[in-house]
Amino acid sequence: MATEVTLRRFDLSDVDAMMAWASDPEVAAFCRWAPFASTETEALLAHIRDTALSHQWYRAICLAGDARPVGSVSLEPTADPCRGELGYVVARAHWGRGVATAAVRAALAAVFGEVEGLARVEALVDVDNAASQRVAEKAGFRREGVLRRHYWHKGRVRDLVVYGFVSGDPLPPSHEDEVCKPLTRLGLVRPASHSVQRTRLGDRWSEKRQPGRRSARTR
């Protein structure tokens, strides 16, 4: 059965849904953040309030017909305003169902029209994170190389696979098990009679404990 997803902004009421992946050590294995304790509801609520709600491009991933988030996808600024880094995370109960691929594809279809000046989106994936590499490739990213000994992650120096997607690159057709809704149904692209608010990626945010940020380094 085809997987359909929608992307929307987060709300404070999403805290319990976010806890499903934010407190899971397996989900956090390749993430920059440490898993939350299941009792840290207030800390997670603060993350949604202080980070997710004010973020320029941070979206909840929802299955079609269900408003409860099962993950998130975000675009982080880099030193160059024409380039952003995509991060994504999906709750473990929904792994292997095409949810992450559908969400990343939908994000790539939307961000160039919503972020002013954006020309390139990157995904940096841990060399051992085969699942996230498959997501990036199936969603339309091109593998461009490996950054050797590039970053320090939880006590070890890690290599990262670099994926790139530039404005004008074609999105792959949806597979029968990974279907994105047309963008007008997603609410990401409005009919011509409506204006679309465009934003410009700001300065790099400080590295915080961000359980919605699944760097593509994550699973």
From TrEMBL:
Where is composition skewed (Basic and acidic residues) in this entry?
Answer: 200-210
GO: which molecular function terms? acyltransferase activity, transferring groups other than amino-acyl groups
Q: Which residues form the N-acetyltransferase domain?
A: 5-172
Q: Quick one: where's region Disordered?
A: 194-219
InterPro entries from the UniProt entry: Acyl_CoA_acyltransferase, GNAT_dom
Its recorded name reads N-acetyltransferase domain-containing protein
Please report the organism this UniProt entry assigns to the protein. Aegilops tauschii subsp. strangulata
Q: What is the lineage of its organism?
A: Eukaryota, Viridiplantae, Streptophyta, Embryophyta, Tracheophyta
